[in-house]
# Entry
Amino acid sequence: MENSFHENRSVGLLLTFIGGMMDSYTYIRYEAFASAQTGNIVLAIIQAYEHQWNMVGKKLLSTLFFFIGILLAKFMIDYFKKKQLHFWRLFLLYFEALVFFLISLHFLQPHPAIITIMIAFTAAIQWVAFDKINGLAYTNLFTTGNLKGVATNLYDYLATKDAGAKTRFFHFLFVVVAFISGVIVSVFFYRWIGAKTVLLIAGLFLYLALSETFFVWRFQREVHLFR
# Structure
């Protein structure tokens, strides 16, 4: 628990669900992906050919800040590991809740490029900081790699009956289902309440941050009681 609260299955699956919501919401509202930078680069090249330079700039900036977010996340992992601060990822969850709350405010709405930058930057940090469930790697922002994991481990299990392959198959399957579910919910709510859907994303981050804070506090309390 001390080093791996962020690897809990419930945390990983909820983050993947939110990842699906983020990507679909950002594309529907701003015509850019929050995390699928392959899609952003392809769309930017197509739109450059069509001289849609404002759309190109928004996507390239999203990719740039996604890259910067990855660098920052790697730095934070090394920094807090050296400081032996194990629960810094809790603050990241609160930060994400704050970012998506700010995105809902009216003063940012005329600036879609700033919003997509904020989302891409935050998503990149989340991707790097939360990259395992119970020791098994996964991706909580997009699902191509997870789909590969479903297919390859299904094949391995059918071919060899290996129990580990079966475990990994279900691991990746749950992640893919969580991502797709997030996309479906995001599309549904956007059609229903429009831009306010972003508040649902903020609320889920806040719920996750508060619930994990409680679990960490309870764990620390029990440790001190038994010393």
User: Anything to note?
Assistant: Strands lie at 132-133, 136-137. Helices lie at 9-30, 37-49, 53-82, 88-103, 112-129, 144-160, 163-193, 197-225.
